[in-house]
Design a protein that fits this description.
The protein is an alpha/beta fold and 526 residues long. Helices cover 43% and strands 18% of the residues. It has three domains: 65 residues, Immunoglobulin-like (Sandwich); 238 residues, Alpha/Beta hydrolase fold, catalytic domain (Rossmann fold, 3-Layer(aba) Sandwich); 108 residues, no CATH class. Helix 5 crosses helix 6, helix 10 packs across helix 14 and helix 11 crosses helix 12.
């Protein structure tokens, strides 16, 4: 019996070992399975950098961050969430603990655009009550810098309001004329207590920039520039009403850029010539930038408290022409520098301002010769009195203010009002097409602007593509009239052809970013 049991045990042992191994193996698989299903989690925290608190998020590996509501911070605009100084992409899969930091821009910061690219520059605004400790007839570098920023506030009521609010101004008054024509003007008033004194800042701005170009050509036959003067009266009357809330000892600072600078000059002139002045001359500070000439030359006064900061290589500062009887009031301060290209490059190594080129047989030797030559060639055409077509030629003469107002002004106003009243997308496409034409086929571009039918077809193509209705007869008539003036002015066309590479540089000279760079260089070195 014992032998039988022993034999049975010996025979059973291998089976027991086998069963034992089978029982252990599943246990091992379960343990491995638990290891595979371990969930790794990561924390995403938000540093609002002074803004309101934003809750952190816990994510599984390869999870996506849920974009939170934008935080807020008094007197700052939120720009986005950044990781290691790079704007964070919320489609990024998370595989580590990270902290996203909010980036802000002070609402007093002004953004300047480059015309040759999508690059923008943020310019900080500084303000100190001490800026007004010196008399208004003493040029102040600090006021020049502040006034430039005040004149360069972007379009849009929010940006303007936020700018003044960030600098602790109050009673902020914004006006954007609803007039659908180019007679409209946009401006703002804001008050600030500086020590024992009151300060009112007056920023005159563009409203519908492109449409207002039409108003630039509406000069009238006599007196101040017709359109600039009409807009200046609107601002003046409104400011006079606003000032009823403040004592006569209040200091006023007026600023504007380009067209708005010309309006600023006229407003200042109106204030100082008013027998019932609401502010004394000593308390009126005026700084303008790239101002056209909007005052009748016979009435323009060299006020010591009006400073027109200009770049003499900018054609706009020569318009409307002195030959037509226009001038600025106040004192001109020229910030042009012949080393402009190098100064721009020093500001931004990636910013290329084309060098000025001198051509053989051309008496235009430098930047500042170019605008004067444009003016000379623009008004050089006169009808040939011995020609059989004298009566017809007179229809195209523009060499005096009266003839310009009668012949060219209505045509340009029609084209600008019509073309710029289209939607922005169509307008941008039209401009791009024009720039491409000049860049790729200069002779073709000149031909387009010397053939009425081609000019008509060029404009009509973009309008038709976007289903914009227009009166074909009126468009054709305006195109032929403009071409008629240009093709008779052969000296202007030849001048444009010979100096084509310099005209783009001259156009850049009017841009706010070039003005800012040259102004900064001038103030740092003078």
């Amino acid at each position: 019996m014992k032998k039988k049991l022993l034999k049975s045990f010996i025979l059973t042992m291998p089976l027991l070992f086998a069963l034992s191994a089978c029982e252990e193996k599943p246990a091992e698989n379960i343990e491995n399975k638990d290891e595979i299903n371990v969930v790794t989690k990561y924390n995403v925290t938000f540093d609002s950098d002074g803004g309101n608190n934003v809750d952190s998020q816990e994510l599984e590996e390869n999870g996506l961050v849920t974009k939170p509501a934008n935080p807020t911070k008094n007197k700052y605009t939120f720009l986005g969430w950044y990781l290691n100084d790079e704007l964070f992409d919320f489609n990024t899969k998370i595989n580590s603990n990270i902290t996203l930091k909010a980036k802000w821009r002070s609402n007093s910061t002004v953004t300047l655009n480059r015309l040759d690219s999508d690059v923008t520059y943020d310019v900080e605004t500084n303000f100190n009550a001490n800026y007004f400790d010196q008399p208004s007839n003493v040029f102040s570098k600090d006021l020049a810098r502040f006034s430039f920023n005040m004149s360069a506030i972007n379009l849009g009521d929010d940006r303007v309001y936020n700018f003044f609010d960030a600098l602790d101004f109050d009673n902020i008054f914004l006006i954007k004329q609803s007039d659908d024509s180019y007679q409209g003007v946009s401006y703002s008033f804001a008050h600030k207590k500086i020590g024992n004194d009151d300060l009112v800042a007056v920023s005159i701005r563009g409203m519908r920039y492109y449409e207002e170009w039409a108003g630039n050509f509406d000069m009238g036959k006599e007196g101040n520039h017709k359109n600039f003067d009409a807009c200046a009266h609107i601002v003046y009357d409104s400011l006079k009403e606003y000032m009823k809330s403040y004592p006569s000892s209040t200091k006023i600072l007026i600023s504007g850029y380009s067209r708005s600078a010309a309006i600023s000059d006229i407003v200042a002139d109106m204030i100082m010539k008013d027998t019932n002045q609401f502010v004394e001359d000593d308390n009126l500070y005026v700084y303008t930038f790239e101002a056209p000439k909007g005052l009748d030359i016979n009435n323009a006064v060299a006020y010591p408290n009006v400073f027109n900061i200009i770049n003499s290589a900018d054609l706009v500062t020569y318009l409307p022409m002195e030959e037509f009887g226009f001038s600025r009031c106040g004192i001109d301060i020229d910030i042009y520098n012949s080393n402009a290209s190098a100064i721009v490059k020093e500001f931004d190594k990636n910013f290329d301002l084309a060098e000025f080129k001198t051509y053989w047989g051309n008496d235009i030797k430098k930047d500042t010769d170019l605008p004067k030559a444009v003016i000379k060639n623009l008004i050089s055409y006169r009808a040939n009195t011995s020609s059989e077509s004298y009566q017809e030629d007179q229809y195209y003469e523009i060499y005096t203010r009266e003839k310009f107002d009668e012949n060219l002004s209505p045509t340009v106003q029609y084209l600008f009002n019509f073309v710029f009243d289209t939607n922005t997308e169509t307008l941008n496409k039209m401009f791009k097409g024009m720039m491409d034409l000049f860049g790729d086929n200069l002779l073709g571009a000149i031909n387009t602007f010397t053939d009425g039918e081609e000019l008509h077809d060029f404009v009509a193509k973009y309008l038709d593509e976007d289903n914009i209705s227009y009166n074909d007869e009126e468009l054709r008539e305006a195109s032929n009239k403009l071409v008629g003036i240009l093709e008779r002015n052969t000296s202007l066309l030849m001048f444009a052809y010979i100096n084509s590479s310099n005209l783009g540089r001259m156009g850049m000279m009017h841009s706010p970013i070039i003005e800012y760079i040259l102004l900064d260089y001038y103030l740092n070195n003078n």
